[in-house]
């Protein structure tokens, strides 16, 4: 299978490496010329709990991709999705499937329109990953990923992608209730990521303090109520369980929102907290804790811009 990973930062490289190990023909596509150059010169350096390896994977700038692929795995930040897909129009042919495992709500809508609906797949991943430097990533935590066609239809391509990822070392399952899974992950991120970003601390710190634990309980409860008001009948307990896993197994991982603020970059808080709060209000319920976390992160972004 020919795979183009669109946005080959922390997560794109982790997943591109898994596809490569499973024998797929992978191109890591990114706008960061130094990163692309380092991968092509030295190989992709992957630091995992199980050990370090250097993989000879091809990397390319968007305009260098000239042929259609079977699968485009989108791993840019959510606010870059549309421009990134426009930038690799040549890779998207009549049979190309698109897959997003990005955080937040609305990734299905961002992919729709670039291919027919039955070729859009979405999902979520609990794996942590950090871009350590050009051509180097580090992922020291466990977690599985789930995916499924976003708008229904034949799951054959989703199965192929999940099988390859699992074969390549990243446990991935098909989940017909994928929108519940995506909401659950978004509620988890809307709770943990702003708390880490605002305190400039990792999940282990949140686990050690009563104030963060109380905020986590309140924020998850609001997210669950927002999901239910939107007809997404997910269960809250697995989300609380994920926060515990995060505060123990991922204790030292910098959530992507913290990585963004530390690097003085825009965060994805609009697609995570903003999307949940907006959906809640549209359904007639309030989510004041999630909304306050959203606004505080926006203020941090404003501080960085001034
Ligand atoms: N990191 C993590 O642990 C996890 C992240 N996620 C989610 O995965 C997604 C990706 O996150 P992450 O890997 O951390 O992000 P990164 O910032 O590490 O990687 C995104 C990459 O996309 C590149 N990019 C930006 N615009 C384009 C474009 N037009 N064409 C091609 N590439 C482009 C960026 O370049 P540049 O930096 O120059 O803009 C960057 O290298 C996010 O939605 C995130 O929430 C989900 C689970 C865990
Ligand atoms: C790694 C994980 C699952 C938790 O922090 C994440 O989604 C993120 O960093 O954004």
From TrEMBL:
SUPFAM superfamilies: 6-phosphogluconate dehydrogenase C-terminal domain-like (SSF48179), NAD(P)-binding Rossmann-fold domains (SSF51735). Keywords: NADP, Oxidoreductase, Pantothenate biosynthesis. It catalyses: (R)-pantoate + NADP(+) = 2-dehydropantoate + NADPH + H(+). Its EC number is 1.1.1.169. Signal peptide: none annotated. Residues 178-299 form the Ketopantoate reductase C-terminal domain. It holds the Pfam family ApbA. Residues 3-143 form the Ketopantoate reductase N-terminal domain. Pathway: Cofactor biosynthesis; (R)-pantothenate biosynthesis; (R)-pantoate from 3-methyl-2-oxobutanoate: step 2/2. It is an enzyme of class 1 (oxidoreductase). PANTHER family: 2-DEHYDROPANTOATE 2-REDUCTASE, PROBABLE 2-DEHYDROPANTOATE 2-REDUCTASE. Catalyzes the NADPH-dependent reduction of ketopantoate into pantoic acid. Belongs to the ketopantoate reductase family. NCBIfam families: apbA_panE. This is 2-dehydropantoate 2-reductase.
